[in-house]
Design a protein that fits this description.
Elements (H helix, E strand, L loop, with lengths): L1 H24 L12 H10 L13 H18 L4 H12 L5 H7 L12 H24 L24 E4 L6 E4 L6 E4 L11
Antiparallel strand pairs: 1-2, 2-3
Helix pairs in contact: 1-3, 1-6, 3-4, 3-6, 4-6
């Protein structure tokens, strides 16, 4: 049991440190107010079209790279057994071209066409890049109209980016169920007893 407790404690330390690092970057993100035409907004509301189809966040690639480097250092401190993998990932990040983070979002949140030494390296790099985007995504989400994700959106996927949820919660004041996007952080209302993945009650 103590081994399990150690694993949980280690995971919580890493999670907490990552959250603190990302939070410190949010004030540095410069993001224009997203704007949508009347037709785009109507299409989103009535036909379930993702907001990312019309306008994605503007990314500061230099800021994202700097954050990715800090994220790697954080993981290395908490998971020293991943040191070699993280050094390899650092070398990949040193060689990325302009537009790397935008391309990641265009490619379904995955790094494209890279020769990975292992599937673990690929998964870890995708994790690092996704985490480095969080401050930009958080700022973008904070600027969206309040109606995004309300009870008119009855889809299992995120109304902003289209990713499926990994968590949900019941809002204390009214008992309504809200799903949470693991990529961009957007929340949206969904029927209490319906599975977002298969749509069954």
């Amino acid at each position: 049991m103590s081994d399990l407790n150690d694993v949980v404690a280690q995971a919580m330390r890493l999670y907490t440190e990552l959250q603190e690092i990302k939070k410190a970057y949010v004030p540095q993100v410069k993001q224009a107010q997203p704007s949508f035409s009347k037709d785009e907004w109507k299409e989103h509301r009535e036909n379930g079209i993702l907001l990312f189809k019309y306008q994605k966040p503007v990314l500061d690639e230099v800021l994202c790279l700097r954050l990715a480097d800090e994220i790697c250092d954080c993981i290395k401190r908490n998971r020293p057994e991943l040191k070699d993998l993280l050094e390899s990932i650092g070398q990949i990040m040193d060689r990325v071209a302009d537009g790397f983070f935008s391309e990641f979002m265009q490619n379904n949140n995955r790094v494209s066409a890279t020769d990975f030494s292992s599937s673990q390296e690929e998964k870890l790099l995708n994790f690092v890049v996704g985490q480095a985007l969080h401050p930009s995504l958080e700022k973008y989400i904070s600027l969206l109209p309040q109606e995004v994700g309300d009870d008119q959106w009855q889809h299992g996927h995120c109304p902003v980016c289209g990713v499926m949820p990994n968590f949900s919660y019941l809002r204390q004041e009214d008992g309504k169920r809200y799903l949470i996007c693991p990529f961009c952080g957007q929340e949206w209302y969904y029927r209490n007893l319906v599975c977002p993945w298969c749509g069954n009650d």
